[in-house]
Design brief:
The protein is α/β, with parallel strands linked by helices. The chain contains six helices and five strands. Mean pLDDT is about 85; it is low at about 10-30.
């Protein structure tokens, strides 16, 4: 009988521990229902045009989905490493799509890693200009981390 009590006590302790993980999810649900909306960060860290287009497709699809539901959504595409080519004015294979998407969907923003921009500038011995729709953050990786810490959903296409 003592063994059964030990097992039951252990199960209760595990159940209580599992419940400790529920409040963040409940908080996110409350934030969405309170009007904060949905928040998504998309990471681009490759210079492959197919992956850049996939990230833009994901952003456009998510934005359209929540717009159709009448719900707010905020989407941030963060480019770093070789992915910075997505936001470079001189090398972006998706520059026209970025402009069209930004013009159509103000809820989608583009962030460029300042560390990568600086390193590319040194390597190429020239200033690296970005598309007009992009703004610079100090570190792309840190930006993704901070958004996740604030409860943003994270997707790497």
């Amino acid at each position: 009988m003592t063994r059964i009590r030990e097992v039951v006590s252990m199960m209760v302790v595990c159940a209580v521990a599992a419940l400790l993980f529920i409040p963040p999810a409940a908080t996110q649900i409350r934030e969405v229902s309170a009007g904060k909306g949905h928040r998504l960060v998309l990471q681009v860290n490759t210079d492959e045009p197919a992956m850049m287009n996939l990230a833009l497709n994901n952003a456009a699809n998510v934005e359209q989905y929540y717009r159709d539901l009448g719900e707010k959504v905020e989407i941030e595409i963060v480019a770093f490493g070789p992915g910075l080519h997505m936001l470079r004015d001189d090398t972006s294979p998706v520059k026209a799509r970025i402009k069209a998407l930004a013009d159509k969907s103000p809820s989608i923003s583009f962030k460029a890693c300042g560390n990568t921009q600086e390193n590319m500038s040194k390597a190429e011995n020239k200033k690296i200009a970005l598309v007009a729709q992009a703004s610079v953050v100090k570190s792309g990786v840190v930006r993704v981390m901070e958004l996740q810490e604030q409860g943003w959903a994270y997707v790497r296409p």
